[in-house]
Design a protein that fits this description.
Elements (H helix, E strand, L loop, with lengths): L9 H6 L17 H5 L2 H5 L51 E3 L2 E3 L7 H14 L14 H9 L33 H12 L16 H20 L8 H9 L3 H16 L11 H5 L13 H5 L5
Antiparallel strand pairs: 1-2
Helix pairs in contact: 4-5, 4-8, 4-9, 5-9, 7-8
Length: 303
Amino acid sequence: MPPVKIRWTPELLRKVGVVQPSAFSLQPSAFSRRRFLGGAVILVCAAPVYRLVTGCAGSGATDAGAAVDAAVIPDSGSDAAVTLDSGTDAGSQPPQVIDGWEVPAGTTLPAEEFAVLAALFDALIPGDDASPGATQCHAAWYLDQLLGAFNVNPPRIYAGGPYSGRHGGLNNFKDFIPLSRVETIRWRTYIEGSNGIPEREFNGPVKGLRAKYEEIFDALTKAAKQAFKQKFTICTLDQRREVLTNFDQDRRQMGYGHAVEGTYGDPVYGGNFEMKGWKVIDYEGDRQPKGFTPRQLLYPEEG
C-alpha cells in the first residue's frame, strides 16, 4: 500500500523544526482518498456489482449514520471563505425511516434522496454475517457529508494531523484544515459545479458531484419502476443488483468508488463506522506513532 501523506500545517511544521513549509505539497491531491484506497485495501473489498453473482447475501437498512454538527449556508455565488457556527446538534435528533432505510438527522441530501443513496451503496457492497457492508459502515453518510463539506467552516475536506489519537497522543484528525483560495475553488467546483461562476469555468463548464448524483437517483428510480413497478428503495437486494447490472457503467463505477471510500476510508470523514471496514480486512489503520511516550507526543519540542 502506498504511504499515506500527512498534510502538514505551517504551525505544525514549525513545531517539529521544519523551516520551509512551502517545500511540502498542499494541493488537493496530496492526501487523496482514492489514492489511499487504491492500494491493498481495494484488493480485498467487494468487487463491482457486474462481477458478482446476483443473489449474494446482502445487508438490511439497519444502521443509521453517525450525525455530526452541520449548518446550512446559502450559495453566495462566490468562493470566499465563510465563518459560521456549527449549527444544531444533529446527534440529538432521532433518524427518519424511509422505506426501511434509516436517514440520520443533519443530512445534506433530502431524506428521500439519502434513502436512495443508502439503497444504492448497500447493493454495491452488501454485507452479511461475516463481514459488514456499506450500510453497516455508514458509507452513505460519508458521501452525504462530502457533498455538504462546505456547510461548515473549515470545510470537511482535509482532516488535520499528524495523529488521530487512536494509538496515543491528541486527536488532531478532528481539526479540519482551512483551505486556500485555490483549493476552495477546486473543491467547490468538484462538489457544486461551476454554476456559471467565471473563476470556476476557466476550463469550461463543470457538472458538480451533487448534480451527478441527482441524475443517478432519478435514473435508478425510473429503472426500478420500469423493471419491478416499484421504487428502488423498496426493491429487494437481488432486484436492486439486477437494476445495477443494466445500469450506466460510468455512473455505476462512480457510485462504487464512493461506496468503497465510505466503507474502507478513514472514519474521520464519516464512513467506516467504528472501523468495521478495517477490522474485517485486518487493517489496523493509522498505527502511528510507535515507540513514543504520551509525553513525547504531547510535547514534541522537548525532544
